[in-house]
Design brief:
about 700 residues, alpha/beta, N-terminal domain of TfIIb, Rossmann fold, Dimethylsulfoxide Reductase, domain 2, 4 domains, 7-stranded mixed sheet, 6-stranded mixed sheet, 24 helices, 26 strands, about 30% helix, about 20% strand, globular, binds iron/sulfur cluster, 2 iron, 2 sulfur cluster binding, metal-binding, oxidoreductase
């Protein structure tokens, strides 16, 4: 007799990869993921997705998934039950705090976990342990962009929505390989170009797909974007193209800022950036005469030793041209991870409670203390350390214990050698993850966590859009959702919060954080979403700054800047500049995409892009193996010869090898936010052979 197949189940979820936040139905039968079905109601993406969202889900049922807690004993891991593992973690964290004080512990929350899980991570750090040493991977990518927005306009998120980007007259992409890293947004721009004649300006050292489609493509020398943006601002003032009405009404510091532009002449910009005077003028004219401009930027700007300043310069340019607060305008840092925006919004930051209340602000501290039922003195008002400084402090012996959730710090942090040395020195380390990651190999306890499709929760996408996702499958084996693990751990440390569902965590956060006052699971039901800030009556904010800016006088601030040399530069020995970034088919350390065979096979191994000029100068043929040596270490890999890169710039995708690019990168970083300057890496190249 033929057995009846179980029913196909359709469940709404949100993509676990990039910050576009594509939502779709996932069709499953038992544990089989049959297909991803986009639907028109999905607010960020409609019926669009990319290769990762559509096909990169094999990792969910991978046989490499962790299904039991692991405890290190005599140098090896053994399987353990949850009670034993959580008791051990609770006891050791409290012992370290007792012996060395609260700031001897550090917590790294996950930019892939939910908002509710980010909230619990920082609540454990702040309320139970008493430290602000809590952060997420935005430290490695987008903190400089947020800093630039804080300095100028006030909110640490995109000014508007993907619809605004679609309807802008001009879109400027700076240091953003949008077609590969945010494919659905790139598709919207391409459609707007075709259907509405939208103009696109690309500013990037690399000739990527959007550069080929651009109306203007500028290829400035590395680390000179601040000069370029400031020269455009100066030109706009000098030629009557600054929006003086907007500036008079909405912006402070105009005269001081204008004075600060004095050095940024077209001559200086041409000399430093390598972009011709004529191209600079054409760009300024196109931006200055447009009715609406959206400016998108990403890690090509932020991962430099002056990423905060360059982000600020870009936001300054938008203020000069009045491009905030109207449909089709604004600054858009393109968030990388699916929930890197939410992890920061919900408090995994060294100096901010959920909703960006500063830890040193007494009123905020009082409100959070009241919300959590303690006295204000129970919460530290000293900003903590971010990821990068926590790891450095561990290497110096100042941080004794770390708790890392879903982050591949051993792969992602700069200068791998220091990171591994720091991990070796820790007295106690916990990793909560789906896989025995490179980071987990150093842990004393590994707790098996569930991916988004095995739990309930919410994410925030790059537009500030909060969306719910649902349990598609039950947790695999004995793995558990992070929010359950953290709730159980807190109870073992004397704080029985009793959350039975993530909605209760969101309710608590909404009660305390004004930014999320009207957020609730009911209002997020179905395909509904809310864009923060959300008023108590549920009114959300698709477009920011329509009634002014969130500063005391309701105005934005122009922020004067000086250009500084990059921290690491080329010289006679290390004569090549190493650029790096992501590819459409892969994601970060490839822990997920690398376990999705069909996607991985599209580009199965690493390579370095070499310009035709350099190839000819050094006798390199397509596929020739080369050794790249930085001031830290060497790697060997094959070459691809392409005009995507020019002159003495190389490009290396970050996804391959045990430690990606980071055996080569150094510890120089942005002094404002301590984001490592991954893009400022000088190398030398030796030709090996064709293997
Ligand atoms: Fe959408 Fe990004 Fe996921 Fe692709 S990776 S489906 S663009 S959210």
């Amino acid at each position: 007799m033929k057995m009846r197949q179980p029913e196909i189940k359709r469940t709404k979820t949100v993509c676990t990869y990039c910050g576009v936040g594509c939502a779709f139905e996932m069709w499953t039968r038992d544990r089989h993921i049959l297909k991803v079905q986009p639907v028109p109601e999905a607010p960020a993406n409609g019926i669009s997705t990319c290769i990762k969202g559509k096909f990169a889900w094999d990792f969910v049922n991978s046989e490499k998934r962790l299904t039991m807690p692991l405890i290190r004993e005599n140098g090896r891991f053994r399987e353990a039950g949850w009670d034993e593992a959580l008791d051990l973690v609770a006891r050791r964290l409290l012992e370290v705090r007792e012996a060395h004080g609260p700031d001897s512990l550090g917590f790294i929350g996950s930019s892939k976990a939910s908002n509710e899980e980010a909230y619990l991570t920082q609540k454990i750090a702040r309320l139970i342990i008493g430290t602000n040493n809590v952060d997420n991977s935005s430290r490695y990518c987008q903190n400089p962009a947020t800093q630039g927005l804080f300095r100028t306009v006030g909110y640490g998120g995109d000014a508007g929505t993907i619809k605004d980007i679609e309807q802008a007259e001009v879109v400027v992409l700076v240091g953003s390989n949008t077609a590969e890293n945010h494919p659905v947004i790139a598709a919207r721009i391409k459609a707007a170009q075709k259907l509405r004649g939208q103009k696109v300006i690309v500013i990037d050292p690399r000739r990527h797909e959007m550069a080929d489609r651009a109306d203007i493509f500028l290829r400035p020398n590395a680390s000179t974007d601040l000069i370029l943006a400031s020269a455009l601002s100066r030109y706009l003032f000098d030629h009557g193209l600054a929006d003086m009405e907007f500036l008079d009404q909405w912006v402070n510091g105009v005269e001081e800022y204008r004075d600060s532009l004095e050095p940024f002449t077209l001559e200086f910009a041409e000399k430093m950036t390598g972009v011709s005077r004529q191209e600079l003028i054409e760009t300024a004219e196109m931006i200055g005469r447009a009715g609406s401009v959206c400016l998108l930027w990403a890690m090509g700007i932020t991962q430099h030793s002056h990423g905060s300043d360059t982000s600020t310069a870009l936001s300054n340019l938008l203020l000069v041209t009045g491009n905030y607060g109207k449909p089709g305008t604004g600054g858009y840092p393109m968030r990388g991870h699916n929930n890197v925006q939410g992890a920061s919004d919900f408090g995994c930051l060294k100096d901010r409670y959920p909703g960006y209340d500063h830890v040193a602000d007494e009123e905020s501290r009082k409100r959070w203390a009241e919300g959590w039922g303690v006295t204000p003195e129970a919460l530290s008002n000293e900003p903590g350390k971010g990821n990068f400084l926590m790891v450095q402090a561990a290497d110096k012996g100042d941080i004794k214990a770390m708790y890392i959730i879903g982050e591949e710090t051993a792969f992602s942090d700069a200068n791998t050698h220091n990171v591994l040395s720091a991990f070796e020195k820790l007295d106690f380390m916990v990793v909560q993850d789906m896989f025995l990651s490179r980071t987990a190999e150093f842990a004393d306890v590994v707790l098996p966590a569930s991916p988004s499709v095995e739990k309930e929760g919410t994410f925030v996408n790059t537009e500030r859009r909060i969306q719910r996702f649902h349990e598609v499958l039950p947790p695999l084996g004995d793995s558990r959702p992070d929010w359950r693990i953290l709730t159980d751990l807190a109870a073992r440390m004397g704080h029985d919060w009793g959350y039975e569902h993530p909605s209760r965590i969101m309710d608590e956060c909404a009660r305390i954080a004004p930014m999320f006052a009207g957020v609730s699971y009911d209002r997020l039901a179905g395909w509904n979403s809310q864009l923060w800030p959300v008023a108590a009556d549920g009114t959300d904010s698709p477009l920011l700054y329509t009634d002014g800016f969130p500063n005391e006088d309701g105005k934005a601030n122009l922020f004067p800047l000086e250009w500084r040399m990059p921290e690491e530069t080329t010289d006679a020995e290390y004569d090549l500049s190493l650029d790096n970034g992501r590819m459409r088919e892969h994601f970060q350390a490839s822990n997920q995409t690398g376990r999705s065979e069909g996607v991985w096979q599209q580009v199965p191994r690493g390579f370095v892009e070499v310009s035709p000029e350099l190839a000819s100068e050094r006798g390199i043929e397509e596929g020739t193996w080369v050794r790249l040596t930085s001031r830290r270490d060497s790697i060997e890999l094959p070459t691809v010869i392409t005009d995507r890169v020019a002159g003495k710039t190389l490009f290396l995708p970050i996804h391959f090898g045990k430690f990606g690019i980071n055996t080569l990168t150094g510890e120089h970083n942005d002094p404002d936010v301590q984001t490592p300057a991954y893009k400022e890496t000088a190398v030398k190249l030796e030709v090996l052979s064709k293997r």
